[in-house]
Amino acid sequence: MKSATHIVICASLEFVYEAKKISSYLSLVGYNVVMPETMAMILNGYVSLEQIIKEKKSGEIASRIIKQESLKTHFRKISDGDSILVLNYTKNGIENYIGGQVLIEMAFAFILDKPIYLLHNIPKLPYSDVIKAMMPKLLQGDLNAIER
Prior knowledge:
This protein has helices at residues 16-28, 37-43, 49-58, 61-68, 70-80, 100-111, 128-133; strands at 6-11, 32-34, 83-87, 116-118, 137-138. It is an alpha/beta fold. It has one domain: Rossmann fold, CATH 3.40.50. A five-stranded parallel sheet has the order 2-1-3-4-5, sandwiched between helices. Helix 6 links the parallel strand 3 and strand 4. The chain starts with 5 loop residues before the first strand and ends in a 10-residue tail after the last strand. The relative contact order is 0.18. The mean pLDDT is 94.
């Protein structure tokens, strides 16, 4: 297996600023880090996180996803990458949250035999068994535990 030098971030958009910190650290220690397109747009000032949250609540986010082709783009990034890193923080009162979009990104990586890293433990959700079956490597918050 080739070394995991090209890491693709997978996370809820609400974790964009945490993703920026993680990405900066990983880049500093020698990884090539790729973020979801919409996260990059937020960080580059093209759209605000508040606008994205508003679009998610209203359902308008689907139009943005289709127009930007962000699903296809992110799946291509996963396909081209060496591994994925799931940033699973507390969201909606759920510790170590992994939502539907990230779950399908994990499944895609799993099918492609890409290593899947979870920053924190597997959440307690109705689909936790599916996450366990994908055999992610649990980092317990330690980015240095990512295998090269």
